[in-house]
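INPUT
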Amino acid sequence: MGRYYQPEIETASREEILRIQNEKIVKQVKHVYENVKYYRDLMDKKGVKPEDIKSVDDIKKLPFLSKADLRDSYPYGMLGTDLKNCVRIHSTSGTTGKRVVAFYTQNDVDLWEDCVARAIVAAGGSKGDVLQVAYGFGLFTGGAGVHGGSHKVGCLTLPMSSGNTDRQIQFMMDLGSTIICCTPSYAAHIGEVLAEKGYKPEDNKLKCGIFGAEPWTEEMRQTIEKSLGIKAYDIYGLTETSGPGVAYECEEQSGMHINEDHFYAEIIDPDTGEVLPEGSKGELVFTSLDKEAFPLLRYRTRDICILSREKCSCGRTFVKMCKPMGRSDDMLIIRGVNVFPSQIETVLLNEGYSPNYQIIVDRVNNSDTIDINVELTPDKFSDIISENLAKEKKLEGAMRTMLGIGPKIHLVPPKTITRSEGKAVRVIDKRKLHD
Amino acid sequence: MAIQQISVFVENQPGKLVEIVKPIADAGLNIRALSIADTKDFGILRMITSDTPKTIEVLSDDLIINTTKVVAAKLDDRVGALLYVIDFLAKEDVNIEYVYAFTASESFGAYVVLRVDDVDKAEQVLIDNNVPVLNEDDIKDI
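OUTPUT
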């Protein structure tokens, strides 16, 4: 298969990529304006007509979309085609009670899987590889996306889903997995368990891993590479644009190539919305150039990063994004799951608690932990221990339903949540996530 | 009838108990009986004092407090005395959430504090079986 999955586009000249983008954006804006009333209204309000968008240079005239828009338009408001043409749904967390629901036509799925296939090939994958998918399968895009990309490349695909580390290791060793895909923290965890079981890094057949869905550092990359005896590659994506594969690392391991034929990337000032010049640090914004079912234009990812057009030794010409350096909102990524403090607040209010809480996130043995201190109110207090513990359990259940991960709840007396300058500190993140 | 117990939610941290007990001592109130139940994160201090309303008044407004009616039943100083008392409750299907004991002077004797699901019923069962129980006035000046 060689070094590229689709060499003609992955190594196309800048002019060719720009030509493709210009052609696609004109069509895409027309498609959205005609089919997505929500966005049409936003454009009308801004006084922008589809005819005004003649090239990607004009994208800056278009209105932004954010999580709030996806909440307001839930569930079908962003749909760009008849529901009958859709074949798939994936979902990610919203900022409060409602989740983001993304739709896919068969063509959307195909193009998405192509993107993942490019990532697998860039990491050294080809037909004949045994690819273990240890991302979660389900509404989360990780499992399904990598699964589809793996099929496209022609790898023997092991749809393990996440968790059950003993079984992961058994399959890895017995079936000779050569590529593993999961969150970086899970990869590090598997490495540790392998060592505990007495395996040396050279005992497995893995040659590389593709890890994403959460921030990780260079230090963590080295830990994973050493413990599994592999090369570890980063992959980036978000449900709102498709899933993993929006950008991917090549052998250079120095930033992720954005699949520019499908996604147009901008860096903006998160406060003013102004487009920043190349090389600036700012918020990453994506415009989907091909998406039919969920065609988001100028979607604000809230990820802070830098784009670079420096020539890459791998031969790919796609622009590179650095590892996200932080967020321009308060979203946390915990065990690969996106968590907003506002979701936690929603649960507390629904359950009759005061919205005084503190989230403590840590990483213990390469696994994220989330603890939530909740201020108890007199009406919830019982002199019987088991009744208080039952309240913690009930709250944990409600949190798990909302967040998709189970936090540990601790009831604390009122006014004990740390306040700085009179303002409660809502999140204490003890993890080291960025270099 | 029955007596008031004050329960306070306490963080499981050094010095927290002092913050609760000190104002009670400073106000000249006597803690007659006390029990602490603990979990990893928090504890619940339960106490019976010589003056319940005054105790609540002196405790910080920031504390989580509630009051519960409990039964205090007299125990004889002999083997099987506790069994004798709780057996009456078991037979009448009264559920006990927790129990603790206290004594004062020799003449006052020993009592068990019973936190039950139905305090009125428990008290009636004990009275019917001639087990002495305390009321609020009894604990004012022991």
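end of record. Chain A has two domains: 7-18+61-328, 334-429.
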